[in-house]
Amino acid sequence: MLIFIKLVLGHLIGDFVLQPKKWVLHKQANKITSKYLYLHVLLHFALYMLLLWNLSLWTIAFVVAITHLAIDILKLYANEMVKKKSIPFFIDQILHILVIYCCAFYTDLYTHTLSLFENLDWYLVTAIVFVTYPASIIMGQVLEGMSNQIETDHKSLHNAGKYIGIIERLFVLIFIVIGRWEVIGLLIAAKSVFRFNDLKERNNRKLTEYILIGTLVSFGMAILAGLLYIS
């Protein structure tokens, strides 16, 4: 496990801390011919070796670095075919972590992976999944009749309310799991403060009631999921 953690740390430092914007732009413009692409991979190899601090593990560092080069090249060309640039970015990061995982546990990869799944807390996984998109869809159905009476604010970010709800429910679930109920009260208070000025300026009773009901339903579902998990 320590090898895996060290390789992940090296990846994070190399990809995010020690990669200037200049390198990123140069790679995007020149792709496989960019000198910074190879300098970036060389830096990763050096970081892996430094963090592992064991010359006998150089093959692991080398394989991870070379694979990093191949994945980065694929990402550079995939960027041109996809409008939403976040998709290649996240796929790129997932592939890097998968390669690191496979290299770190290559001696007992199947056994270790099987052990991870066997020891996974499926109750918690189910609760986490529930408070994300399923809870959002349920809220949409519950509040559908009310939302038709609310004027749409075109200045709002697209789907901002949905993502805020998902994040707040995840926080509530986490706080319940770790037994910090008092923090949930602080979270509700903080959200109320942020909403107060917005609602005060609009002076819209229907909107206030709609947001209040939505907030209570959202927190209620997260609390229910948390209680079912810890019971």
TrEMBL record:
Q: Which UniProt keywords apply?
A: Membrane, Transmembrane, Transmembrane helix
Q: Give yes or no: UniProt keyword Transmembrane.
A: yes
Membrane-crossing ranges are 36-53, 59-77, 89-107, 122-143, 170-190, 210-230
Under the heading InterPro entries, the entry gives: Phage_phiKZ_Orf197
Q: What is this protein called?
A: DUF3307 domain-containing protein
